[in-house]
Amino acid sequence: MTGPLQRYRFVPATLAACFVACLGHPADVSESGPKLNHAAPFQWPDGKQAVLSLSFDDARLTQTEAGIPLFRRYGVKATFYVSLDQVRKNLSTWREVVRAGHEIGNHSLRHAGSGNFKWSRDNPIENYTLERMQDELRQANREIRELLGVTSTTFAYPCGHKFVGRGLATRSTVPLVAAMFAAGRGYMDETFNVPGYCDPAQLFGIPSDGRSFKETRQLLQEELDAGGCIVFAGHEIGAEPGMTQVAFLEELLTWAQDPAHPIWVNTVANVATYLRQPPDQK
Ligand SMILES: [Zn+2]
Is residue 24 part of a domain? Predict the structure, then answer.
């Protein structure tokens, strides 16, 4: 007899192994996730004390208009979790983004989210199965490759939602993302990621929209003291209310590039790859 708890078992071992084998995932991934060593002291590269990743979702126009020139000025690379219809509308611009070395991540085929959002009501994840989600994530990867010539190795859960189905039939999409990608970024999370404890398949993502540097300063100091990895997640970039403020990004990157604060600013993919390396290979 299958009890309720057994039904919560998300992906059979054989299916998880198939994901790993079929998709060529890094060898350190198992059904229980990457091997993270809680005891060994963690060291970021080049003597850096902490990590900052900037990520932006949905391929909004302001990301290329206001964000890309700003990131070029500071010499940093960001991660863009793209909506494919928006990429198609500005294909040559997004190809330039790729050429500039920024990361293009998977954000699902149809921005699959809960039907609690009106825009998702015709296609809610409450009606999805894991198999359908897997098919759509693979299709999104194929389309990103066809449009932009790159393979996405990280994923951002649309709206931070990490499930399909409802009630007792709910399944987590985290094991699926763990099998397909080096990292999965959440949204609306409250704090930074701590090496040795954080799960790359569900990295916390802190909203950057509408945030000021002043209100973020204390969190950044706590992250610095903890040797953590902070991942911001934004949408529009500009000066209007609700956007990730240009002033915030400028102050944040100026702070991160101050020699007094040795911060490694890099893409989610590069940070996840480093997090997954065994301590003796760092
Ligand atoms: Zn989104």
Answer: no
- Ligand 1 centroid to Cα of residue 240, in Å, is 19
- CB distance 188 to 160 below 8 Å: yes
Ligand 1 center from residue 43 Cα (angstroms): 32
pLDDT at 64 over 70: yes
Query: Please, which pLDDT band fits residue 280 given cuts at 50, 70 and 90?
Result: confident
274 is a domain residue: yes
If you average pLDDT over residues 55-70, what whole number do you get? 98
Distance of CA 118 from the midpoint of ligand 1 (Å): 14
pTM: 0.86
- Distance (angstroms) between ligand 1 centre and the Cα of 126 equals 17
Between the CA of 193 and the centroid of ligand 1 the distance, in Å, is 21
CATH code of the domain containing 195: 3.20.20.370
CA dist 102 → 71, 95, 127 (Å): 10, 10, 34
**Position 67 in a domain:** yes
